[in-house]
């Protein structure tokens, strides 16, 4: 069976590492940590990837049945993420039906998580780029709530700021919960994962 491609959205480089826009990177980093695998530059893909497997015992676990999993962080900026995702789908011979994208979501409060299949891009430049590149929006999404900007701050500026200290304390917990949700979706399907994690 074709592998799962798990894409965490974000911007590369230390300048952006702790921004709200980079929660997708944080979640796939957590999945790589659980699987005890390291990201490395994927030549020609404009991305860093890590390969592992998932079984009913979890990501990186041994035993059967198992499915192959590719974790991916684009080395492009957010608005060109689709270039890396399109290349990766072709390289790993998989399809949008086996694609799951983890991204920040302005329309959900911090601490809220929504799993879904398909839909629009809701103004998210990473999703917009992926849809344009692969010609479809029919892929899984894990939407990680970051909330709306306060006052008159523009969303484009808000997503490129760090989480405030009050939220930073809980960030690790929420990242781990999103990683749990991804594992359940892959192992038990969307309906089970939605019932357990959608808030």
Automatic annotation (TrEMBL):
Q: Where is this site: Discriminates between blocked and unblocked aminoacyl-tRNA?
A: 11
Provide the binding site for tRNA.
16, 77, 79, 125
Compartments where found: Cytoplasm
Site (Stabilizes the basic form of H active site to accept a proton): give the residues: 104
* Keyword annotations of the record: Cytoplasm, Hydrolase, RNA-binding, tRNA-binding
Q: Which Pfam families match?
A: Pept_tRNA_hydro
Top-level taxon in the UniProt lineage: Bacteria
Kindly state the subunit structure of this protein: Monomer.
Q: What is this protein called?
A: Peptidyl-tRNA hydrolase
């Amino acid at each position: 069976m074709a592998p799962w491609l798990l894409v965490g959205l974000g911007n590369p480089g230390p300048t952006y590492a702790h921004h709200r826009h980079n929660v997708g990177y944080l979640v796939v980093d957590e999945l790589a940590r659980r699987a005890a695998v390291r990201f490395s530059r994927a030549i020609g893909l404009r991305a860093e990837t890590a390969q592992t497997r998932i079984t009913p015992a979890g990501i990186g676990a041994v035993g059967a049945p198992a499915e192959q999993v590719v974790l991916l962080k684009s080395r492009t900026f957010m608005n060109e993420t689709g270039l890396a995702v399109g290349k990766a789908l072709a390289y790993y011979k998989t399809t949008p039906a086996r694609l799951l994208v983890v991204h920040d979501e302005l329309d959900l409060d911090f601490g809220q998580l929504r799993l879904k299949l398909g839909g629009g891009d809701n103004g998210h430049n990473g999703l917009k780029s992926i849809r344009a590149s692969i010609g479809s929006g029919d892929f899984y999404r894990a939407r990680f709530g970051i909330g709306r900007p306060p006052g008159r701050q523009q969303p484009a500026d808000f997503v490129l700021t760090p989480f405030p200290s009050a939220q930073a304390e809980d960030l690790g917990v929420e990242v781990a919960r999103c990683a749990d949700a991804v594992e359940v979706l892959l192992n038990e399907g969307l309906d089970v994962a939605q019932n357990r994690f959608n808030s």
